[in-house]
Amino acid sequence: MTDATEPEDDFKPRHVDWRLWRRIAGHLRPYPRYVLTMVGCGLMLAVVEVILPLITAGIIDEATGPGRFERIMTLGASYAVLLACFALLVWRFITAAGLIATSVAYDLRESSFARLQSLPFGYFDVRSTGWLVARVTSDVTKVTGLLPWFLLDLGWGTTMLVGIFTAMMLVDPQLGFAVSVIVPPMVIATWWFKRRMLESSRRIRATNSRLTASYNETIAGVRTTRMLAREHTASAEFRSISEDMRSWTVRNALQSAVYLPVVMSLGSIGVGIALWAGGVQVREETGLTLGLLIAFMQYAMLFSQPIQELAQRFVDLQSAQAAAERVQELIEETPAIRDSPDVAARIAATPEDPPPGIAPDGGRALVGTIRFEGVGHAYVEGERVLDDVNFEISRGTTLALVGATGSGKTTIAGLLARWYEPSEGRILVDGVDYRERGLDWWQSQFGVVQQVPHLFSGTIRDNVGYGRLGADDRAINAALERVRALEFVEALEGGLDFEVGEGGGNLSQGQRQLVSLARAFLADPQLFIMDEATSSVDAETEATIQNAVEEILRDRIAVVIAHRLSTIRRADLILLLDRGRIVERGSHDELMTAGGRYRDLYLAQFVDEAERRIIG
Amino acid sequence: MGNRGRRRPDEDPWRRTVKNARINLSGLWGLMREDRGTFALALASLVVAACLLYLVPLLPQAVIDGVLGDEPDRITATSRRLVDWMGGRDHVREHLWIPLVWIAVIAGLAGAATYGRQRWSAKASQNAAKRIRDRLQDRVQRIELRRFDQLESGDLLQRCTSDVDTTQTFLSMQAVEVGRALVMFLVPLPIMFATDWRMTLAAIWLIPVILWFSLHYFGRVRVVFREKDEAEGRLTSNVNENLVGIRVVKAFNRQAHEIERFRGSNRDYRVLDERLYRIFARFWSLSDLLCFAQQASVILVGAWLLVTDRILVGEFYFFFAAVGMFLWPVRMMGRILAELGKATVAVERIEEILALPVETDRPDAVAPPRSDGRIEIRDLVFSHAEDAPVLRGIDLDIGAGETLAIVGPSGGGKSTLINLLLRFYEPDGGVIRLGGVDVESIPRAVLRGRIAAVLQQPFLFSRTIRDNIRLSAPEADDAMIETATIDASIHESIQRFEAGYETVVGERGVTLSGGQRQRVAIAQALLQDPDVLVLDDALSAVDTETERTILEAIRSRRGRHTTLIVAHRLSTLREADRIVVLAEGRVTQQGTHEQLRNAPGLYRRLWEIQDRAVADADGAEGGDA
User: What is the pTM of this model?
Assistant: First the structure.
C-alpha cells in the first residue's frame, strides 16, 4: 500500500530555513556544470524574451514606415534565430534539470540507504519501516525535484525583471517608470495570496490523510462497525471529514480564483498605462513609434510571469522543507554503536588478509568462551529490562533462555550480538571486553535464525546463498541436505531456481524456517543465535526442523530463545528469566528435580504444545 | 482480510462489467448529477470571461488605429464602435486616459467572470467529489461480507482514495481546462475572420499540428511513465524489503552486498527518470518552437500586409495578442486529452465498488422484543464455493443463559457458525432462531445489537479507550464502564497508562498488546449487556490465570445472557456448562464435561494431556504426542 499518511509536521507553517537549504545545496557540489547550465540557460532565456518585443517593434515600424523589404527580412530572420535559440535553451535546461534532479536524487538515495545499513538496531526499533522507506524514496524525490527549477527561476526570474526594466529604461525612461507602477502591487498581491494558498493546501493535505485514515478504519474495522451497528454514526463522522476536505479545497480554489484575475488585471492595467502615456507621446510626435508602444504593452504583460514563478519557488521551498530536514538528518545520523578509535587503529594496523588464527582486528579469531558479567540494560533510560545477568558459555555448549514475554530473553541475544551494548556490566570474549574487538568482525561470527524468518524475494539459491556470498550450488545443496530441506526444495518447480516471493510468501512457514536454517548453516558461524518459532507447523515438518536445529547447534556456541520442549531439554544450561533477572538456572534434569517455576513452565508448555496438536 | 486464502486465482471479485477502458465518461456524468447546474454556471462565466478578455486587446487596437492612426476611415467596424463608445476620436485623442479606465474596468469584469468560473467549477467538482467519497464510505460499510472478504484491502483503499483524487482532478482541473481552451480558441475567431482572413489563417494554421503533436506525444510518453513507475516500485520494494529484513542483513553482516544490490535498482530508476526528462525536454522545446512559429507567422504575414497597406497596426497588434492568448491553452489541451484515459479508468474502478451487492434486510423485517437468548439451529448448511462445504447440516439448541463452548480443529466451521449467527454471511440452507424468531426476519442492526461478539483479533478505533468501550452503549456512564472493565480484567492495566481511560489507541495512538486489545473488546461487549455474548477465540492472547478470572466474572453474570465460547484450549472449555465438538462441518460430540470425559474423542484427548504432562515431568514414559 502507498504510504498515504504523512506525518503531521509537514503541515505546520514555517519560515524558509536557509541554513538547511545551504546544506541541501551542498549536494549539488559534484555537478558544477549542470548548475552553471541551469542558471546560464535561465539567464539567456530571459534575455531572449526581453529582446523579442523589440524586434517585433522594429518589424512593425519598418512595415508601417519605410517598408524596406530587406530590412524586414533581416529582422524576421533574427526573430527566427532567437526563436530557435529559445527552443534550444528550453531543450538544454530541461535536460540539465533532469541530470541535476536525477543525479542528486541518486546520490541522496544511495547515501541515505547506506546510512540506514550502518545504523544500529535501536534506530529501527522506534521507527516504522514505512516511515523509513518514505525518507529514501518520496522525501528525496520531493527535495531533488525542486532544486533545478529553483536554480532556473533564480536565473530566469531575476534577469527577466531586471531585463524588462532595463530595456524600458533604455527606450523611454518616463514610459518605463509609468508601466513599472504595476510591479509593487503585483509583488504584494502575490506574496499575500501565495502564503494563504500555502496554508490552505497544507490543510488539504492534512485533511486528506485524515480521510485516508478514516477509510482505513472503515475497511479494517468493517466487522466491528457492523457488530456495533454503528454504520450511521461512522458515516456521520466520515462526512464531517469529507466536508472539511471539500471546504478547504474550495477555499484554496477560491484563493487562486481571486489571485490570478488580480495579477492578470494588473497586467492589463499596465497595458492601459502604456497605451495612455505612450499614446500621448505618439500624439505629440515625440519620436515614440507605434512599434515601441506595442513593445511596452507587451512588457507590461510580461512582468507578472517572473514574479509568479519566483514566489512559487519560495513556496516550494517551504513545503519541501520538512522532507529536506528528514533526509538531511538521516544522512548526518551517526551510528551509536561503532568501533572506538583504538579499535579502528588496530584494524587499520592489521593486514587486509590476516594470518590464520588472527581476526581482522588483530585479536584471536577463534572464540572460546563468552562471559556476561553483571550485565544490565535499559533501552530507554530508567526503564531497566535486564538486571545483573551473569553466566558463561563455551564452545560446544548450548544455552537456552526461557521465560515469559518481556522477561529479557531477546535482550540477552541482542546484547550478545552487539546489536545493542549493555548499559551496565561487561561482556567478555575470552576475557576481553567485546567493545575492544572489531564490530564488523564480531557480528560476522554469528549465525542468526529469527522467530519469523525473513526471506528476501528471489530464488531459493539467492536466499540460502545469502549465508555465504559466492557459494556454489554444491555448497548450497550440501547445506540444504544437512538441514533435511533438500527433499522439499527438489520437489519445487525449478528447484533452487524457485522464486520464494516477497517475504518468502510462496513457501509455507515450515519451509521458510528450513531455508533460513540452511542459510545460517551455510554461513558456518562460530556463534549461533536462534529465536525459536512459537507457531506450530505440521508434525512431520516439526520433526524435520528439530533435526535441522540439532545439526546446526553442534560444535558451536549457541544461544537459543527456546519455546520447544525438545530444544530446552537438550540445552546444556537453561536460564529462567523473570522481569530481567535470572531466577533459576541449571540443566533440565536439575531444574525439574528442584521443582520450582521451571517445572510449572514446562508443564504449561507441554499442555500448550499438545493442545495445539489436537485443535490447531 | 480474513478469507483471502479461499479465493481461487481465476476468480475476479470485481466481475468487471465494463470490458475495455475506452473513453466513456457517462459514468462520471451520472456520478455528478446534482452538480450539473453549477457546472453550467461555470461554463457560462467561462464564455463571458473569454469575451471580456478579448475586449482588452481590442481596445488598444481601436485606440491605435482609430485615435492615434492617420487613417480613421479604414478601421474595422468593431474599432469604430469602441471609439464612439469612448466618446469619439477627437475626445479620446485629447483624453488618452479614457482607454486606460475602460481597460481597467473590462479587465476587472473579466477577472470577476474568471473568478465566477473558478468558484463554480470548484464548488461543482468538490461537491461531486464529496458525494462520491461519502457514497464510497457508506457502500464499503454495507458490502456483503462474503464479497468483501474476497477483496484486497489495499486495492479497496486505493479505489477510495487515489481513484477519487484522479476523478476530482479531472473534474476540477482537466475538464475545465479543455473547456477553457476550446472557448478561448473559438471566441475570437469571428472577430478575427471579420478583420482579415489572411491574418486569421496565419494565426491558426499550425493549431492542428500543435494539438496532434501533444496528443501523440503524451500518448507515447505514457509507456515511459509506466516503466518509470515500475522502476520506482521496484526501488521502493527493494528499500522496503531491505528494511523489513534489516535484522537479517545485520545478522549476516551483508551491508556492503545490500548497498551494491540497491545501487542496481537505484541506477535503473535514475536512467528511466532521466529519460523522461529528456523526452520532456524534446516535447517542450519542439512544442514551444511550434507555438512561436505560429506567432512568427502572424508577425511576418502581418508585416507583409502592413507593407502592402492591407491591414492597420492596431489590427496587427490584436492578432498578435490574441494568438498569445489561445496558443498555450490549446497546447495544454492536447496533453489533457491524452491523459483522459486515467480518469476513465478511475471512474470505472469507483463504479465497481458502488456496484457490489450490499446487505439488505427483508422488507417485512421487524424488531422483536428482547429475547431470552435461546438459540435454535436447524440443519444449517453453508459453503464458500460449490464443492467446498464448510457447514454440512448443524443442529444445535442453546438454552437461555447457558454457557456453551465450541471446540474443534481449525477449518471445522466454528467461525463460520458465528458469522452466520451475526448474519455476516447468509446460510445456503437451514435456519437460526434467536428467542424463537428466525434471525433473517430481524433487521441486521437490531440482531447485532442483541448479540455482542468479540473476535480473536478485535479492532479498536483510533480514539480513547473510554470511547472505544462506550461504542457499544453510548449512553453508559463511567461507573458502568468501570464495572465492565473490571469484569474483563483490564481496569488495572488501563489505570496504569499515563492518560488512563483517555489514552488514545489505534493507528495514531498507543499500541496495545494482543491480550490488552482482546480484554478491551470484552469490556466493550459486556457493556452492551446483550442477549447473547460470543467470544470467538477471544482469549487466545490472555494468560490462563487472567482467562479464568474473566470467565468467572462472566459466569457470575450468568442468567443475564447466553454465552458462546469458541475455545482453543482446555482451560477455556472448563468454564462451560456444555461443550460442542465441531469437526468437518458437523457436530461430532456434545454434552457436559462428565459425558464427554467418558466418551472417546477430541475432548477426552485434550483432557488426558494434563496427566501425560505430569507423567512426562516425573520422568515416566509418556512421550509428547
Answer: 0.82
